[in-house]
């Protein structure tokens, strides 16, 4: 089970080290979510999920408010949600989620990120079937038994609960994200170390040393792209 947490922790550490880029990506994601329905998280579930995630990355209120205000205005910017799938060295698999107002630009940039770093793009469905869409909620200052009891009393279904690095991590179906958080809120828990909708690999690979730099270059290049929101992979790095 630790592999799941290691990849989530690695992703979070990477984002925490690049705050300005992360804030910009969240600003766009909040804007797009707010445009999908009412710009009110109480009536717009997609927006509420993004805001809960943003809290765990300490996205400033000014950025959140600016994105929501923009969604309330007359902006005619239209963004498409896209998913790309591809392969890195030695059987590594990568999923790229993007928000873009220029599909050709994004497709070209993602393809170049793969091809220039010894990877290659796959067709739709070539990689995603090896990953599971998952809601992950992390809680500190509670034991595994305490969290399990809260969720059982609230009759919330989850896939798994585990304890890692002083965190209790709840893994659930994506449509249970709100149910898990609401149950924890009702129990007086309002701060989360992790609140993510992610893609977790069903199986992980460890790359030979000579392939690590090439793989990391693919990931870094993809994450640096303005249109890319999330990058998921099935590589487990050595501690």
What does this structure look like?
With 239 residues, the chain is of the alpha+beta class. The chain has three domains: 2-72, Orthogonal Bundle (Arc Repressor Mutant, subunit A); 80-129 and 202-233, YebC, transcriptional regulation domain (Alpha-Beta Plaits), CATH 3.30.70; 131-201, 2-Layer Sandwich (Alpha-Beta Plaits), CATH 3.30.70. It has helices spanning 2-16, 19-36, 45-56, 61-72, 103-115, 144-153, 177-186, 209-224, and strands at 80-87, 93-100, 120-122, 131-139, 160-164, 167-172, 194-201, 228-233. The strands form two sheets. A four-stranded antiparallel beta sheet has the order 3-1-2-8. Strands 5-6-4-7 form a four-stranded antiparallel beta sheet, sandwiched between helices. A hairpin with a 5-residue loop joins β1 and β2 (93-100). The longest helix has 18 residues, at 19-36. It is globular, with a radius of gyration of 18 Å. The mean pLDDT is 90.
**Beta-strand residue percentage:** 15-25%
Shape: globular
Number of domains: 3
Low-pLDDT sequence parts: none
Count of separate DSSP helical elements: 8
Radius of gyration: 18 Å
CATH topology of the largest domain: Alpha-Beta Plaits
Number of strands: 8
CATH homologous superfamily title of the largest domain: YebC, transcriptional regulation domain
Distance between the termini: 15 Å
Looking at the overall shape, the CATH architecture of the largest domain is 2-Layer Sandwich
CATH class of the largest domain: Alpha Beta
What's the main sheet like?
A: 4 strands, antiparallel
| Fraction of residues in helix | 40-55%
Reading side by side through the largest sheet, how are the strands ordered?
Answer: 3-1-2-8
The structure class reads alpha+beta
The averaged pLDDT comes out at: 90
Element pattern in H and E: HHHHEEHEEHEEHEHE
Domain TACO1/YebC-like second and third: 79-235
Domain TACO1/YebC-like N-terminal: 3-73
InterPro entries: Integrase-like_N, TACO1_YebC-like_2nd/3rd_dom, TACO1_YebC_N, Transcrip_reg_TACO1-like, Transcrip_reg_TACO1-like_dom3, Transcrip_reg_TACO1_YeeN, YebC-like
Protein name: Probable transcriptional regulatory protein JFN88_05360
